Amino acid sequence: MIRLDGVSKRYPGGNEALAGVTLHIRRGEMAFITGHSGAGKSTFLRLIPLLERPSHGAVIIGGVNLARLSRRRIPHLRRGIGMIFQDHRLLNDRTVFDNVALPLVIAGLPHRELGRRVRAALDKVGLLRKERAYPVTLSGGEQQRVGIARAVVSRPPVLLADEPTGNLDPALSEEIMRLFEQFNAVGVTIVIASHDHALIERMGHRRITLEGGRLLDDGDRR
Ligand code: ADP
Ligand code: ADP
Fold first, then answer.
1. String of b and e for 39-54 (b: at least 16 CB within 10 Å)?
2. Where in this chain does the record put each ABC transporter domain (predicted)?
């Protein structure tokens, strides 16, 4: 599903954020990427929806080498990938409903489909009764769940989360991770960057470790 082959990434004027990374995340897997700040976790995630391109090596998603993906196919690639951020990036002047509906509006989904799909996604994250609320009136954990609903509303086969529990206490963090497990249980491939070692240990999924841009352990025990 997600394959990196000898991938290095050097930002303009910077040093190497990733260096010679080769690994494979299978369809339906749930994996954590760990490593200190600056280890290359975000860069790794950003390569997958083509928010960045590698300096060397190949990124292959669902059998497609992204270097050969034409520009007009990029929106299609991105529609298949749900992204979740630490700061959730919700629009504060829009309701929960409108935030979650946004990817569907952009994709041009017919209006009558919107309500059904948005409510199904809010139901999955347990926030159906908050659809008219504004993000600032919600707790941190609820805001993150809205971010997750927005990421899954178009039913992407891949979810990527960058420090999704960075601002949450341990109990809420675990709740968010269990939510990811539920999506994984229905076949979604999930990659989560996190440096919360205690939580990752408790969850017991594959753990990919980066250090200074290098792959220290690909965590593949199969
Ligand atoms: P992590 O997510 O593990 O903290 P990042 O992938 O964000 O690591 O960063 C890896 C390295 O790349 C760091 O040294 C960081 O400063 C550098 N870096 C990340 N993004 C950029 C950028 N847009 N321009 C220049 N350097 C960057
Ligand atoms: P419906 O078929 O009415 O949309 P589902 O219960 O199948 O209802 O899905 C409800 C919501 O849960 C979806 O809109 C989507 O947000 C999320 N979801 C369900 N299955 C998946 C999946 N395989 N991948 C991603 N998201 C999913």
1. bbbbbbbbbbbbebeb
2. 2-222
